[in-house]
Write a structure and sequence with these properties.
It is an enzyme of class 3 (hydrolase). Pfam families: Peptidase_M32. There is one protein chain. By secondary structure, this protein is mainly alpha-helical. The chain has two domains: 2-144; 160-487, Neurolysin, domain 3. The protein has 20 helices and three strands. Strands 1-3-2 form a three-stranded mixed sheet. Strand 2 (227-230) and strand 3 (233-238) form a beta hairpin. The chain is globular.
Length: 489
């Protein structure tokens, strides 16, 4: 198999360089000095030039024609390399490098403009990002839907039509549940002071209990929490509000879900095309399973209530049940990452519609803030008070991640399927969660899904783990049962 062996040796270097680029991105968002931004933008552009050249090297075409797959692993590696090769050849090298440079600069400008509530300072660089992504999408789509073309970066095989159908299926039951909850009894709220150091210490303990390996990772702070890396170096970030410990703790659990997927991939796949998560929808299935269906379950909340009282003393909530209600409070808040499980997908639907209109040229960047504010008030019944609570709250558009947002809701759908299957296999799960021990469920995820990396396509990955075709029904049934119990519907 000389052609396959030569191809994989070449690809191993490409994968390693991609990890280096990812680490530079992590550094930029977590610990890089602000003044380094212009130089980092040039560094990122230089790395992208090298990576693009490798991903479009003519030898790849020769090797792909000559290589034969003796087993499923080789077949999957060839599938992923061929997809990357075909895709990257459509994008001019200069455009790929310019996108890397501009989005590197835009991330810092977004963070500064967001902190200053200065939308006008952000719009010029956002306009440039959107212009470049539209140009890239035109090359990739070759006359087809430009938004679908960009989605392939995050959800191979996905389409805007499929996502819109998913949202149409989910929206009626979500809206009905939300109304029931908003009409129901008000949920308790935590009160008190929650020191930063204590939050981070507890977050580290929880991360370890959920299976995060600190020997191959670290926890840092970022404006927008994220996970980065794969294989032997997988890092996570969180953020801290000393009046709201849930922000830190549940952001951490969420990012641990992502990180455990990457840490859990079979070591034999290290630095190969299948040595990472297969798609962002499948990735999000892990983080949403960890954060919501385990971390916000009544059983786990009972344990966390006692642990938080040990750490923080009086937290303003007098029982495990009230704590569970506080964790799952339903309210029409501004922030997607802090949204309850009913509002979360409505946040995603808003972003999906707006970014699709941006990429298709149906919405100008100059009109984005007004379009966001109008849609948000219509969907949530609340007027946006400032840009950081509106269209500037998420980092995604500044770094060019158009086509990413719908994978969050797809991940919720996948999570519903996975946890229904896990609970069927693990009848003692709630008893374990009540002890603060999610290891049975996280071990199930590692065995059924994580260790396989990108061996299978996204839909096949979920089907293999659950034995069922992905469907929205398990998620909607889970939400019905949970919030009917909480709000008496």
């Amino acid at each position: 198999m000389p052609a396959y062996d030569d191809l994989m040796a070449f690809q191993r270097v490409t994968e390693a360089l991609s990890q280096v680029a990812g680490r530079a991105g992590w550094d930029q968002e977590a610990i890089m000095p602000r003044g380094a931004a212009p130089q980092r933008a040039e560094e990122m552009a230089a790395l992208e030039e090298v990576l693009h050249a490798r991903r479009t090297d003519p030898r790849l075409g020769d090797w792909l024609r000559e290589a034969h797959a003796p087993d499923a692993v080789a077949d999957a590696n060839l599938r992923e390399i061929r997809r990357s090769y075909d895709r990257n050849r459509k994008v001019p090298a200069a455009l790929a490098a310019e996108l890397a440079r501009v989005t590197s600069l835009a991330q810092g400008q977004w963070a500064e403009a967001r902190a200053a509530e200065d939308a006008a300072a952000f719009l010029p660089v956002l306009s440039e990002v959107v212009r470049l992504r539209r140009e890239e999408a035109a090359h990739l789509a070759e006359g087809g839907d430009p938004y679908d073309a960009l989605m392939q970066d995050y959800e191979p095989g996905g389409s805007a039509e499929d996502m819109a159908a998913m949202f149409d299926q989910m929206r009626p039951r979500l809206v009905a549940l939300r109304q029931m909850a908003l009409d129901g009894p008000e949920a308790p709220r935590l009160s008190g002071h929650f020191p930063k150091a204590d939050q981070l210490k507890l977050a580290e303990q929880i991360a370890a209990a959920f299976g995060y390996d600190f020997d191959h990772g670290r926890l840092d702070l970022a404006v927008h929490p994220f996970s980065s890396g794969s294989g032997l170096d997988v890092r996570i970030t969180t953020r801290v509000d000393e009046a709201d410990p849930f922000n830190c703790l549940y952001s951490t659990i969420h990012e641990v879900g992502h990180a455990c997927y990457e840490q859990g991939v079979d070591g034999a796949y290290l630095l190969t095309p299948i040595g990472n998560g297969v798609s962002m929808g499948v990735h999000e299935s892990q983080s949403r399973s960890y954060e919501n269906q385990m971390g916000r379950s009544e059983a786990y909340c009972g344990w966390l209530y006692g642990r938080m009282r040990d750490v923080f003393g009086d937290i303003g909530v007098g029982s495990e049940r009230d704590f569970y209600r506080a964790v799952n409070a339903v309210h029409s808040g501004y922030i997607r990452t802090e949204a309850d499980e009913l509002h979360y997908n409505l946040h995603v639907m808003l972003r999906f519609d707006l970014e699709r209109a941006l990429i298709r040229g149906e919405l100008d960047v100059a009109d984005l803030e007004a379009a966001w504010n109008e849609r948000f008030e219509a969907d949530f019944g609340v007027a946006v008070d400032k840009p950081s609570n509106g269209f500037m709250q998420d980092v995604h558009w500044s770094v060019g991640l158009m086509g990413y947002f719908p994978t969050y809701s797809l991940g919720n759908l996948f999570a519903g399927c996975l946890m229904a299957a896990a609970r069927a296999d693990l009848p003692g799960l709630d008893a374990d969660l009540a002890k603060g021990d999610p290891s049975a469920a996280t071990g199930w995820m590692r065995d059924k899904l994580q260790r396989h990396g990108a061996l299978r396509t996204p839909t096949e990955t979920i089907r293999h783990a659950t034995g069922q075709k992905p469907s929205a029904r398990p998620l909607l049934d889970y939400l019905d049962a949970k919030f009917s119990d909480l709000y008496g519907g």
